[in-house]
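in:
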């Protein structure tokens, strides 16, 4: 039976200046201090990473970044390297988020370089994949997921997959800041996860697929977290809007604990 510790990651996106980020981390630290069955990760914007990392030292919450460059250093104005993330205690990095793909034209080839670089720098990538509304309406979901996984995981070994988390984020279900945005139904999410796991068993093998953590992202909130997280093959959540409030994020962590 496929069983693993659930991962609940907060994606704060471009929100919270340093003081606000630190006080959210301080509040969250208290709220989830007893969480044992779920792994909790917070991904603040770059400017707040170091301060939040300090606040979370000696807590059970891990630090993640929202993006990175694939090179260790160099003339890449405005970018942040994996070495910089490592130096301030980051353990995770979100890669290939649909907002990076859509607004910054990141493609699978670039994301693949980032995944490889993260792994070689001992950062754990949370690789986001997901179909948009048009693709879904055209019944292309499976094709899109397979293409993204195939391209973004080129040259990643079975052994390295132990450190990779896949986030299934149907683009049409991401809230973009609207708390009332519709999430995928838990059945839709379960189906997406099954497609992903099945394809991972084709590109790697069954065991690797079974042991890969696949988390759901797209309007996960306290009201639907329990339902989503109880579905087969949903190993956690990548939470945007509902993670901005420490209490609501902590409720999602609680839902993952049970
Ligand atoms: P959301 O965002 O929870 O606000 O839908 C999720 C994400 O984009 O990671």
């Amino acid at each position: 039976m496929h069983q693993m510790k659930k991962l609940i990651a907060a994606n704060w996106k471009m929100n919270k200046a340093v003081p606000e980020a630190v006080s959210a981390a301080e509040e969250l630290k208290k709220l989830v201090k007893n969480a044992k069955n779920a792994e909790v990760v917070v991904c603040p914007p770059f400017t707040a990473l170091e301060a939040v990392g300090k606040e979370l030292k000696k807590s059970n919450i891990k630090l993640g970044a929202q993006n990175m460059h694939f090179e260790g250093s160099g003339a890449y104005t405005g970018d942040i390297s994996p070495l910089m993330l490592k130096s301030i205690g980051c353990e995770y990095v979100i890669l290939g988020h649909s907002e990076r793909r859509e607004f910054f034209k990141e493609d699978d080839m670039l994301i693949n370089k980032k995944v490889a670089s993260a792994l070689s720098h001992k950062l754990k990538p949370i690789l986001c994949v997901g179909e948009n509304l048009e693709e879904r309406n055209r019944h292309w979901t499976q094709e899109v997921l397979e293409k993204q996984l195939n391209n973004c995981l080129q040259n990643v070994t079975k052994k390295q997959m132990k450190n990779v988390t896949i986030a299934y984020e149907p683009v049409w279900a991401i809230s973009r800041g609207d708390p009332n945005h519709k999430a995928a139904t838990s059945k839709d999410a379960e189906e997406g996860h099954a497609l992903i796991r099945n394809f991972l068993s084709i590109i790697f093998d069954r065991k690797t697929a079974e042991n890969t953590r696949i988390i759901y992202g797209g309007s996960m909130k306290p009201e639907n977290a329990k339902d989503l997280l109880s579905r087969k093959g949903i190993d956690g959540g990548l939470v945007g809007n509902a993670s901005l409030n420490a209490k609501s994020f902590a409720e999602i962590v609680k839902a993952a604990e049970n």
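note: The mean pLDDT is 96.
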